[in-house]
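Q: How would the structure tokens look for this protein?
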Amino acid sequence: MEYTRGFLKETQPSPTEGSPFLATTIPQGKHYDYKVEAHLVGLFADRNIEVSEQLSIEASLRFQHTRYDYDNKMIDGRTREDGTPCGFGGCRFNRPTDRRDSFNDWSPKLGAIYELSDNRQVFGSLSRGFRAPQATELYRLQNAQDVTDIDPVELSAAEIGFRGFNDRFDYTVNVFAMEKDNFIFRDTSRTNIDGGETSHRGLEIDLAYRLTNTISARMAFTYARHQYENSPALVNQPISGNEIDTAPETMGSAWVDWRPNERLSLQLEWVHIGDYYEDPQNEHSYEGHDLLHLRMNYQWSTTTRLSARLMNLTDEDYAERADYSFGSDRYFVGTPVSLYLGLTVDL
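A: Here is the predicted structure in token form.
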């Protein structure tokens, strides 16, 4: 059981610069001021059955009730803070009247593990999950939308994999397939709608290898296809079959750790983000990036530890995230080469 009280306040300190339309519809002053009380109640049950010495099955079921009590502290509607109307049909920011919304959802899961030997096993699972709409999706509205009618996002997933280990080598390989229904997004008219469908299929690999007593390596890699499976209402261009924007096909990282003694440890990390489309129409793309990071820890004494991180070792130009908005590429620029030093003292 959870109870949370939150609020959102948004204020624009100066007038909007730009076209008469933008200057009129995005006014100076307060845009939103509301409080939300969130109530969450969950019930969970699970059962593990040892079918044989090799086979075990686990079944679980979760029920969750989510309720939001929304209290608007401003004038309802899409007016300015003082209640005067904006031109061009109204202000961009729309404040719904006080309301209560609730959602009830079930999440079942069935999994199995089969022991091939003492150090090898096959595993698999079937599951169904959900995500209730967020408060901002329900109450931080824009343009003509004064109420939302959206339901929880649903996710159906299946996976099967193989894992094992020995004195030097650990590995896990699995394939997965997921179908997401009713995903929530903001369309081109700035309306929060649901009804989206996507598919996600891929391969995950996790490897760890101890080269010597002082050197070890690890790699985690994912190859996946993420696609839109329909063209939701109010989308101005068909996107069914397109790849999901900002979702790369390949992602991965690898580490090499060196511990020459009990006090000193060094780590070199490689991070890979593959290319991806910036927009649902798949007309603009980001090429991806590869980064190198170097980390060091030194135990100076039983109470003092020194640390250093050299991030983006080769000073690559990259974006933490890239998308296409308002007719141009938009990049959330990543951090250039950076050195961080740390000192930890246990008192």
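The chain has a mean pLDDT of 93.

Residues 41-65+105-244 form one domain.

Upvote if useful.
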